[in-house]
C-alpha cells in the first residue's frame, strides 16, 4: 500500500470508531497517525516498516506501528476488516451526506432508528429529523438536499464539460493579486475522456484571500472542506473542485504529483530513488537519511533550480513527458531512450470526413458547413450524410444521394470557397454485414464511411464478423465509431476490436477517431499498438452543425493520449495528398 492509501485507512478507522462512540483519545490517535504517515516520504515509510522502527516517529505508538506495517506489507488489516463488519453498512453510507457526521449519525440511529439513506430520507420527509434536538428545519433541509444530490455528485463528467467548468475558475484564480501561478491538474490535464473532479493548484505566499475567493465564487453550491492549504467545493453542475495552495518553490513538484496518474507517479518515485532522491509533491530530497518529516520541512523552504516540469524530468535523466502520456504505460522508458513520439497538434489538422448536413440529421446546410470549415482554415471537408436505412436520421436514398453528389460537384466548380468538399456517405452496415447501398452507387462517391447504427445486441462473434464483412467491401474507405459507445450513457457493443483492426490494416481501411466528446471512439488505449502496426486514423468530428466541426480538438486530445503523431493521422495530409490517396485507394 502507498502512504496515501494507508493514511486513508487510518482516517477510516478513526471515523468508524467515532460512529461506535469510542474513546476520543483512541480516535485521535488514528487521525494523528494518518497525518504522520502522510508527512513521511514513501521510501522512508517502507524502510521503517521493514526495520520495525516506526515507533521512533513522533505520533506513532507500538500498536499503531504494527497496524501500519501490516497494511504496508500486505495491503490488508484484520482489525480494520472486523471493525467495518461490526458497523451496519447503511451507517457508513450516511457519512456521504454533507452535514451528517458521526455524532449526528449516532443520534439519528438512537432516537429514530435511522441506519440507511432510505430511512434518513423518510425521516426528513416526515419532519422527524427537524424535531430532534440539535437539528432543526435548516439541518433537515440541508440533509435532504444532500441525499437528493448524492447520485448526481457521484457521477463522472465528460472531459469537455469539466474543461468548460474549469476554465473560468482558472481565469478567476489567475486574476487574483495573491496568485503567483495557477494551473489545473489531475485527469483533466491528462485529457482523460471523463473526469471525476477538478484539481487546481495555486502558488502563493498569501493563501487565505485565495481560498476565500475560491469558496465564495459564483456557482459554488456547497463548501465541503476548508483549511490552510486546501479548500473543496461542490459546484452547481455537481462536480467537486479542489484547490491546493502551494509555496512557490514547491509548485512544480506539486503540479507534477497532482497531475498523476498514480502509476506514473509511483514509477517516477522509484526512478528518483534509484538516483539517490526521495521524490514527493514537496520536492526532491536526498534519500540517504533525509526522508524524515523534519528534513522535508527544512528542504521545502530552499530555493531550487527546478522551476518547470522539463527541468524536473531532466533531473531524472528523462525527456519531458507530455501530460497526456502520464499513465504508467511505458512513457518513462520511452523518455529515457528518446522514444517519445512528437504528438499530433491541433494545428496539424487539414480537414475531416465524417460530417452531416440538413440533407439528413444535420442542422446546417452544405454551404454553411463549408463556410465554417473554411473559417477553421481547413483545406477540405467531407460530407457523409446518413444512408437510407437510418430512417430516424432522414437517411438519403439513391436519388437524394445522387442529387447531393451533383450539388457538391457544382459547389466546388463555383470557386465560392477555398475549402474543397468531398462527396461521401455514412453508409449503414446492415446486420448481416452488407452495406446499405449497392456497389455501383458507392462507386460514384469520393469516399465511404461505414458504420453500425442498428442491432447492437448481436453476439460478439456476429458483430465482429458483420463489421469485418463491411471492411472487406472494396468501396469502404473508413470505419466510423468502431465500438458505438456513448460515454456515460451506453457501453460499446460487444466486439473483438483487435480482429477488426487486423482486417482494416489488411484492406487499407482507415479507422476513425470519432471526436464527438460523447464518443472518442476508437478508444485511446487501443491506438498506440494499432498505429504501430500500420493502422491509419482519421480524426472526424461527426459534426451535425457548424459548431460541431470544432470538436476535432477533442479528437486531437484523445489521439495524443494514444501516442499518435501527425503521420498516423490521414486528416493531417494536404488536399493534394488526400486527393492522390483517395484516387490510389479507388484504383488500387
Concise description?
This protein is of the alpha/beta class and 588 residues long.
Task: Name a few traits of the molecule.
about 600 residues, five-stranded mixed β-sheet, five-stranded parallel β-sheet, 25 helices, DNA polymerase, domain 1, 4 domains, alpha/beta, Beta Polymerase, domain 2, Beta Polymerase, domain 3, about 10% strand
Care to describe what's here?
This protein has four domains: 152 residues, DNA polymerase beta, N-terminal domain-like (DNA polymerase, domain 1), CATH 1.10.150; 89 residues, Beta Polymerase, domain 2, CATH 3.30.460; 74 residues, DNA polymerase, thumb domain (Beta Polymerase, domain 3, 2-Layer Sandwich); 242 residues, Metal-dependent hydrolases (TIM Barrel, Alpha-Beta Barrel). It contains 25 helices and 17 strands. Helix 22 links the parallel strand 15 and strand 16. Strands 2-4-7-6-5 form a five-stranded mixed beta sheet, with helices on both faces. A five-stranded parallel beta sheet has the order 13-14-15-16-17, with helices on one face. Helix 1 packs antiparallel against helix 2. By secondary structure, the chain is α/β, with parallel strands linked by helices.
